[in-house]
Each structure stands twice: as C-alpha cells, then as structure tokens.
C-alpha cells in the first residue's frame, strides 16, 4: 500500500496486474481500480498513465509526494531504517 505505479498509457501494458487467486487461477486487471475493488489491496496507492512519475534523476515528481506511507516500526527495525520514514522504492545508498 502507498505505491506509485506508472504505465505509458491505459493499454501499455494492457493489464495493470495479474493476481494468483487459488483455485480460480490467475486473474487479470486492466486498472488499479479494478484490482483494488476485487482484492482489497493498495487502497492508498496511485496509478499514473502517460507522463513519467520521476524526474531525470529518478526522484518522484512533486505531485506524488503524498503517496508514500510511513514505514512501520517492526519493518524499520528489521531493515535498519528509521521508523516512520516515507519512501517509494527500495532502500539503498544514494548513487554518487
């Protein structure tokens, strides 16, 4: 939850997500909304179609700054990160 998804258009790729659903098999969803409604996942995430969601240095654009959710204490402790830090993407050392 609190993810920022991007695709270049509503049809590229055609499917937003494919979800393994036990005996029903894999279900495909064309949008974040259909995925969210069917699975209950990602209620606070966003999907942007078209313009890039990062700048030339890979930083999230300002209009999506509210998307990241605070890192829970148990996750922060297990990963060596600060509790409550907000970030999209993996935690790593910055590029030189």
UniProtKB/TrEMBL annotation:
Domain of life of the native organism: Bacteria
Protein name: Right-handed parallel beta-helix repeat-containing protein
Species of origin: Aeromicrobium senzhongii
